[in-house]
Amino acid sequence: MTIRDSDGFELVEHDPYTGRSVWSYFDGEKTVYRIDQPVDDVIRSNAEERAHAGTKWRGDWHKIGSIPMNVYRASGMHDAIGQKDDRFIARWLTDNDAWRTKDGRL
């Protein structure tokens, strides 16, 4: 059985654990793929952690965010971490606070 969405994309793969779905569409010349990745649970979890994290920055280590892999790669965070570009990382996390688990200045 073929499953299609309202735009004509055909379901190729679905992971029930992560909710990730891969879709394809042939436009007559080329096949286009689309990957849907739900992020609502990560955003909700980050907000809950942020609400209980406190405001103090004491100690050696702090978790400052959880980012889904597709956002991590598409945002440039992957490259920035590899290049140790702390300014990019801090700016990106400040501008995209849905992925933050701790408030405050980075």
Point out poorly predicted stretches.
none
Class by helix and strand content? alpha+beta
How many domains?
2
Number of strand segments:
3
Order of helices and strands: EEEHHHH
Distance between the termini: 50 Å
By DSSP (H or I, 4+ residues per run), the number of helices equals 4
Largest beta sheet: what is the strand line-up? 1-2-3
Q: What is the mean predicted local confidence, pLDDT? A: 91
Shape: elongated
- Main β-sheet description: 3 strands, antiparallel
* Rg, Cα atoms, Å: 18 Å
Strand content of the residues, in percent?
A: 15-25%
What level of helicity do the residues show? 25-40%
Structure keywords:
4 helices; 2 domains; 106 residues; elongated; 16% strand; alpha+beta
Question: Can you summarize this structure?
Answer:
This protein is α+β, with helices and mostly antiparallel strands and 106 residues long. The chain has helices spanning 40-52, 69-75, 77-82, 86-95; strands at 10-14, 21-26, 31-36. It has a three-stranded antiparallel sheet with strand order 1-2-3, with no helix packed on it.
